[in-house]
Each structure stands twice: as C-alpha cells, then as structure tokens.
Amino acid sequence: MSLAALQEIERTSVVPSYARFPVEFVRGEGALLWDAEGNEYLDFLCGVSVTNVGHCHPRVVAAVREQLGQLMHVSNLFYTEPAMRLAERLSRSSLGGKVFFANSGAEANEAAIKLARKARPAGDIVSVLGAFHGRTYGALSATPQESKQAPFAPLVPGFRAVAPDPAALAAAVDQRTAAVMLEPIQGETGVNVLSEELLLSAREVCDRHGAALIFDEVQCGMGRTGSLWAYEQTEVVPDALTSAKALGGGLPIGALVTGPRLADVFAPGDHGSTFAGGLATSAAALAAFDVIDDAELLARVRELGGRLAAGLAQLPHVLSVRGRGLMLACELDLPAPDVVRRALLEQRLVLNATGPTTVRFLPPLIIDEGHVQQALERLGAVLQG
Questions:
Q1: Mind telling me the catalytic residues?
Q2: Tens digits of per-residue pLDDT, 272-318?
Q3: Which of 310, 305, 312, 284 is nearest to 364 (CA)?
Q4: What is the CATH code of the structural domain delimited by 89-273?
Q5: Which residue, 37, 43, 221, 271, is most buried by CB atoms nearer than 10 A?
Q6: How many H helices and E strands in the chain?
Q7: Which of 315, 320, 319, 330 is nearest to 385 (CA)?
C-alpha cells in the first residue's frame, strides 16, 4: 500500500491526534530503520526512548516468540511466571519494595498517584513546572502545561505545581501533601536535568511531613542516563518510581515500583488492569533487562553520551547542549522542527523537536562510535545547508 493510500485512510478513519512525518517504516534492526522504499535511516529517537536495546533485539524477539507459542493471556486472577520474575527483578534492581504492573507510563503514574492518595487520603500532589507525567486525567493534572491541560479542564483537584526551585518546593509541601512527583530529568519538555539541590530538598521536605517522594523514570530510566535508574546518579532515593517505555524492549508495559514503606498500601481490589503484566510483555521485559542491566553497556552509554554531547556543541547553530548519558538535547538559533524534518527527509536521521529551538536525542543504548559520528555528520550537513 502506498504512502498516499495510508494518508487517505488516516484522513478518513483515524482521529487526528498525531502530526506524522511522511514516512512509513517497515523494518528495523539495531539502530537502523528502513522505509517502504528501502531507504535506510539512523534512528536517534528509538520510538521516544522505547527501543533502548535497539530494534528487534534477537533476545527480545526470541523471548516473545517462545511465549506467544505457549500462552498469550490469562489475566491477573492467576499466577504467571514471567510477571512474578519481572516483579522480583524490578524490586531487587531498585527500591526493594513491591511492583504494580501497568500498560504505559501514564498508567504507571496513575497507579503512583492512587497509591500516594491512599497512603494519605485527600492529600495534594505537588509537581514542578516543566513536568510531563502523561495524558490520562490524573497524570495530566500533574503535568503543568497550559497547552495540554486547558482543553480538558476541569482537571482532577488537589494538584499543585511550583517552580523547580528548592525553596519553592519546600514551601509547597506540608502535612496535607500526599506526594511530590518529579522526573529526575524532564524529557518531553526538552531534557531538563533537575538539580541535586532540588532533589535533596524534595527528599528532606517529604521526610519532614510524611509525604511520599515519587520519581517518574518512564523516560530517563532503564539505562538511558548511563545507570539502570536515573536516581542512582543522585544522592536521593525515592519512595516509589515509575517505569515504562524501554521496560518492554519495544512492547507496551509499565510498572510502579515501591520502596518498603509503601509496599503494602494497596489491598486487593484497590487497583487493577486487564492486560498489565501480560505474559509476552513480561517475557520481553525480562529479555530487555538482561541486555540493559550490564555494567559494560551502561559505562558505554556514559562514554558515548559524552562524545555525542561534545560533538553537538561543535556544530554550527548549536547554542547549548544538556542532558546525561544518551538522553540529550541541544538548543539552536534555528527553528528546531524545520531542522528535524530536514534531517529525516534529507539525511535519513531520525530525531525530534521538543520545542521551538530544542532538538532531542534518544538513540538506542547499543549504538557505537560509528553511529555517533554518522549522526553528527548528518545533522551537521543540515545545519550547514
């Protein structure tokens, strides 16, 4: 089917909620994608930090194929080994508490909000400006962005947002606060690294008032910053964290992971999800864990992230570079959406713009020096053109 035919189907049959590029991808392997005409692309977006292990990683594909040939679905009314093993691995790799499975990052954040509200009934949820926690109503209410919230008001009550400043955050939290919810590195608003001072302030004020500290690691977790979890590169340990995106190696799964204090807040019937923790997605996540939770790979992420950042800083029209590991963004003195579109269509380099002048880089964690150099050369050709 031609691209024009797909676009006509979209026009007549698909809700217009996405602004798609005029490319149909049909195959992927590692850091590469191919379109329907056979053109090869270098992917430095990886499905918005989903295919961290690369496209169609053999271990993930094999795990999914084996599981699909045995059993697809039975629901959470019964035990399945992949889900139990994945929960154990998530807990042991992070906070040491318990796990609730979801199907996406927004769903994982909804579970975290409900958990905090059950622990402190009717308590407020405090987030910071620049946050993005999802598009479902609770997660959207914790996402203080006028363009995303205004069309869907009124939102869920009891949410407040403050500037990402230690003093402002400390002043916003009191004995009525259920939780402070933060992305250690804000992804959708342009890879903004929250300061260590802010994280420490959040931990201290939550401890003082008995509120929960929740880290949204949906985008910055699963090896993206050069450690399995982003919080591991700080001095702060949250009470709960959320994960999704790369957790499933390309398949949809999310998780809320608690520390010991919040491990038994939920009781049977408090929350649920028909498909969450499914057999195939759990099997995929276990295989992705095997690839990502590797000291050599994570060290490589930090090294290549440094090389990419240094190379970006040398390109024309780049004003600044920020981020950590292979979660980076650069500010341009040019319109970023135009640069991203030209990079895709002229240089076969997949990126995305998160603002008028911001380009985001989220390559697969399995890239090598050659991929970094190719990306810099292709982006450089666009910026010089």
A1: 132, 216, 245
A2: 999 999 999 999 999 999 999 999 999 999 999 999 999 999 999 99
A3: 305
A4: 3.40.640.10
A5: 221
A6: 13, 17
A7: 315
